[in-house]
Each structure stands twice: as C-alpha cells, then as structure tokens.
Amino acid sequence: MRKNVKKQLALRVLSTAALVAMVSSIATAAFAAEYNVKDGSVEIVAKDGSQSITQWADKDNNLCVKDGEGKDIRDREDSNIILTTKNKDTGETETTSNTVTITAENKGDTANVTLKDVDIETESSWNNSGSAPIEIKGNGNTNLELNGDNTVLSGDRHHAAIEKADKNGHGTLTIKDDLNDDNSTPKDKDENGNAAGGDTGKLLAGGYGDGAGIGGGFKDTTDLSYANTSNITIKGGEITARGGYEDGAGIGGGTYGNAKNIRIEGNAHVKASGDGGAGIGGGTGGNDVTITGNAVVEAYSEYGSAIGDGRPWGGGDTTITISGNATVHAEGKNGTTAIGSSQNGHHGNLTITIAENANVTAIGSTNAPAIGNAYSSGDGNTTIRITGGTVNAINSYDDNKDFRKDYPAIGAKDGKLNLTIDGSTGDTVVNAYQNDDAVPDGIGEPTTDPETGELVYGVYKIPTSADYNEDGSSNLGEKNSVVINYYKNASVIKEELQLPDTLDESAKFDSDWNHHCTITGGTLTKVVHNRKYMEEHPEEIVDITKLKDEDLHDWQLVGKVVEPTLEKDGYADYICSIDKCGQTKHVVLPKLTPEPSEPDVPGDNTPNTPNKPDTPKQPDGTTPAPVTPDAPVQDSTAPADTLAADTTADAAVVPADAQNLVQDAKPEAAAAAPAAAAVLPQTGANWLAVVGTALSGMFLLAAGFVLDRKNRRMN
Predict the structure, then answer these.
(1) Largest separation between any pair of C-alpha atoms in the chain
(2) Helices 2-30 and 687-714 sit at what angle, rounded to 10 degrees?
(3) Which DSSP string do the residues of 372-402 spell out, in sequence order?
(4) Whose CA is closest to 525, among 471, 467, 472, 465?
(5) Which pLDDT tens digit goes with each residue over 212-264?
(6) By C-alpha distance, which of 82, 86, 66 is closest to 74?
(7) Other CB atoms closer than 10 Å to residue 168's CB: what's the count?
(8) Are 266 and 293 in contact (CB under 8 A)?
(9) DSSP string covering 646-697
C-alpha cells in the first residue's frame, strides 16, 4: 500500500510539471511573433496597457494577411512585435513599398516594436498622395529596437523616412539598441546603465524633398504642424539620417519646421546631413538639440547649420547643448555655421553650450563663424558658453580669399554676443583657428562706432571673457583648468565625404562641398590661461614658487628698470615667463615729487637736501637686478608661438624670441568599446514538444486516477 501511495505522488508531480511546461510554452509562443512587411502594410496600436497588430493584404477591401494557421492577423495582441523583410528561405533582405504605422494613443501607452533587417522604400509621389515608410503617431511612447541592418527611404517629396509630425501627436520616439540581433539577449551595460558592446543595430533613414530623415514632413505653408517635430531620442545603434534636397533636416524638422527636444545620448553613433535643413535640428529656426552621454556624432549641411537651424529664416529661440563625454564633428558648407545658425542667420535668441568633457570640432565656411551666428537683425542675442571639454574651431576653409577675412571662428557676425569661458563644469581647452593672417582673432565680437553706436561691419575684437584684463588677470575662473590658444594660418585636409545614397538623388552635396575636413597646422599667436592651468602644468612655469596667490602670471623683468626722476616718469617692462603666454606688462613708475621743505630757521643757512628715491620693486616684492635690454618692449600683448613647453627658459625673456613657430593641432578623441554581452539561450516554442508534453501530462493524470480508485477498493 505504501508503494502505491508513492506511485500516486510521483504521477501527480509529473503531471503537474507537464501542465506547467505546456502553459509556459504556449505563453512564450504568444509573444515571439515575427511579421514580414512584404506580406502587407502594418498598423500597430498601443492602448490601455496592451498592444495589437493588424496586417493588411488589401485594406480597401478589408482583407488581412493570414498567419500559418490560416487566421487573420487582425487586432492581434502582441507585446513584442518584430518586423522584417528578410526572406526566411533565402536569408536575403528584400525590399518592399508597404508601410508601417505605429500609434501609441495616449500618454502612458507604450508601443514596443523591433526592426530586424527591414528594407522599406516607398514609391515616388509628387502630389502628397503617398505616405511615410514608417509613421509615428499619438501622445504615448514608441520604442524602436534596432536589430540587424535596416533601410527606410521615402520616395514622397512631402514625407520623412521615419515621420513623427506634431500634427499627429506629441508623444515620444526612442530609437535604441538594447538587445543583440537575436532580439532576446540583452547587451551589457556601461557605467551609466546604457547598452554597450554586442551586436550593433543599424539604420539608414532617408527623407525626400521637404521631408526629414527622421522627424517632420511637409504639407503646405499654411499648416506647419506637419513639418514641426518634437521629443525624439536616439540612445543606441548606428544611425545615418539624410534630409531631402529642400529644407528637411537629417534629424529634426521638415521644410519650414522646427525641432524641439531632440536628444542623442547613450552610446549612439549618428551621422546626419541636410541640404537646406540642418544636419541635426530644424528646417528653420527655433530648435532645441542636446547631444550628451557617450554619443559620437557627425553632422553636415550645405545651406543650413550642421547642428542648429535650417536655411529658411524663422523666428523662435534655438538652444544647442553638447555635454557629457560626447564627441561631435560638425561642418557647415557654403556660408553656414557648423554649430548655430544657417547662412541666413538667426534672428531670435541663440544659445550654444559646450560643457563637462565634450570633445567638439567645428568647421565653418566662407562668410560665417564655425560656432555662433552668421547674421542677426540685432533684436536677438547670441550666447555661447564653453564651461568644459575641448573645442577646436576654424572659421573657414575654402580657397576663395575674398570670403574669409572678416569672421572669427567663434562668435557672432553681428548683433550682440554674450560669451562665457570659465571651466565651471570641467577642464577646458579652446583652440581657435583662422586660416589667414589678415583675419581677426579666432574668438570675436562685433564692434560699434563710439560716436554713432552703429555696428562696424567686418571689424571684431576679442571679448573680455576670452582675453586678459589690463592688469594681466583673466575672466576664466579658477574651478578647473582653462587655456585658450589662438592660431593664424591654419588649414584643413579635405577628404571625400562618404554618405549613402537615398531615393532623393538631388540631396547630394555639390562637388565643391562634398568633403570631410580635418584641421591641421597653424601658427600659435596668443595663449590665455588661468592660474588653475598653471598649477596643473608646472612644466610650463619657470619657478612656480615665485607665483603669488593674487597673480596670474610669472612676471619676469625685460631689460632694465628706468628709474623715475623729478622731471619724468620711469618704467619697467615685464613678460610672463610661462612658455607661449606672451602677455606683457608695462609698469609706469611715477616721476618723483619733491617733499615740501620746512621754513628756514633763523640763523640756519643749510639748504634742504631732497630725499633719495626708492628703488622700484618687481611685482613679487624683490629688487630687480639691472639687465641690459636686448630690445625695447611696448605696452602690448606680445604674440607667443609654440605649444611645446620650454622649461629651460631664462628668467629674462625677450618677446621677439617667442614668435613665429608653427604648432600642429592634434585634437584627440577616444571612445572606449565596452565588453561584449554574454549570450543567453533563445526563447520560443516547439509545438510538437508542446503537444507531446500536454498528452503525457494528461495520460499521467489518468493513470494516477485509476490507481487511486483501485487502491481505495482494495482498502
């Protein structure tokens, strides 16, 4: 009897396990569906906590695509939808003109969709009758996971490739690459919690005509809500986005449209280009772009800014922020800025911030700064804040000398400039390059006529925030190290710009501008530093023990002290001995004033003897030793010349010895590749195993029941 009881218990355990396995297998199978877009256009709706898919074979006749069991794919619940156009028999990714619409209806609803080896290319249309290849709608959240190699190209002049128009909702679109290509194994996480390593999901998104690569489309000028876009985040994957030949951005607004809350972060790698639209930003002004995290970005535009505004003149404020450990290379072509306004300028408030440990290279062209505003009507402010990181900027690079003499590398062509360089968020290095020796300094603001108060076109000065004060102090702050290097006669190396083709053949850059540039060479003419920089670079200081707390420079006497007399002033000239600084100081020693004599005492005919003048002191309080000057020194800033430290400099330095050496600028940027993710087993269901397991479970339950009845009769 005891033996029979044990058999019963064993059978019950086995049958229960079989049922659990069966139910688990069925549940897993329900959330692992893959849909081939070649079979028909797809509509996905997320609402009230669930997600469903409908795939149309013929929507006009209300016919749906059928699955392998002959059932319609209509309003089918699926929490993890995978879209592909890969032929499962051949393994080749095929092209389709069928489209995808994703709607997360309300705030709080989330659509989760994976693009896995998708190639969607819509047919050409010039009458606004077509649709976007992928359209994002609603006020909820849409997540696009990238697996494999994906291509999404618009053939309609009014549509983006992945279109998210404010007309259809203000929800969020997040493009990510959190999973490996098996769509089940999560990637490793870096120190900031972002997916890293493993397989890289790729996406090429190409707009047509007025449409962006990713962002707004265009209907007409009476309703720009089709062109405006907002709330787009790219946080992973390798993304290439190209706007149409009109004014659609690579990532951002369509023609005449703006772009709000565009973010590139995490470990995303992005290459974006626009023709008249920005590479990243708007089809006009009034944009908000943030690049942060460990993102690596390349951006180009022929008539718009690489990052910022599109070509058409538009109002509204534009804000551009580059921070974290982001690496950015931006190039403006044909008279536009790299970061800031288009060739037509920005007429509202333009704010550009570079902070923390960002590494930024900005290359302008012809008659525009690399970072700043190409033109302002005067009613807006241009604000540039560099509070951390490394910035390399060159004003222009083309071969036409007539276009490159008037504009700084960083600043505003006209209007009001508010510039801050203070290292408040991290160590800061600014390398400002000019490609001519006749142009203004690398950082400049417009000047005004003192009599009329009007702007003097083409005349610029270094803002006080990027230069020394008269006493040799700076406005760079002391929280972190700051150094500004000014170069003249710099140049660039041009290589052909490699961008993939889209359906819009007219979106190709003109041959004169189709290149990627690298800054090289330059003559260092001036260095501005703060005390923190000096403390962190003791190799550049002759004797750091001589520095006083209140002194920014290590002043060394040049020549000899000319002592004052009763008839004329004396003077002493000094130069900062920190290599390359070149800052000089001319100290005037006021002429002596005789002390008033006491009235003569009767009977005392001895004449009064004037007091002997005190010997002038150096800034550090010591009495200088007379030195025969090699050359006279003027009260001006002597140019410095080389970026290499000279620790063997004599205490007395002649300014002429610090001139006309060439320093190659070699900005460095590195991105560490995180470790590959561990591979986990794939999920999915074998239906034969499921059926077999279920039958086994039922048989065991029946056997247990029979044995139980038999045992009871025996008892």
Answers:
(1) 156
(2) 160
(3) EES---SSSEEEEEE-SEEEEEES---S-GG
(4) 467
(5) 999 999 988 888 999 999 999 999 999 999 999 999 999 999 999 999 999 99
(6) 66
(7) 18
(8) yes
(9) -TT--SS--GGGG---B---------PPPPPPPP-PPP---HHHHHHHHHHH
> Residues 499, 210, 270, CA angle at the centre, nearest 5°?
35
Phi, psi of 12 (to 5 degrees): -65, -40
Contact of 476 with 216, CB cutoff 8 Å? no
Core vs surface per residue 591-603: b (16+ CB within 10 A) or e: ebeeeeeeeeeee
Strand, helix or coil for residue 609:
coil
Token pair for residue 301? 């535009």
The angle formed by the CA atoms of residues 232, 234 and 236, to the nearest 5 degrees, is: 160
> How far lies 122's CA from each of 63, 129, 502, in Å?
21, 12, 11
**pLDDT tens digits, residue range 502-512?**
999 999 898 88
Place of tokens 């190039």: 331
Q: Would you state the pLDDT for residue 708?
A: 59
- The H or E element containing residue 34 is strand 34-36
CA distance 245 to 255: 10
3-state secondary structure of 44: strand
Residue 361: partners with Cβ closer than 8 Å, 6 or more residues away: 328, 329, 330, 392, 393, 519, 667
> Cβ of 165: how many Cβ atoms within 10 Å?
30
The token pair that represents 634 in the structure block: 């003027």
Which residues touch 668 (CB under 8 Å, ≥6 apart)? 359
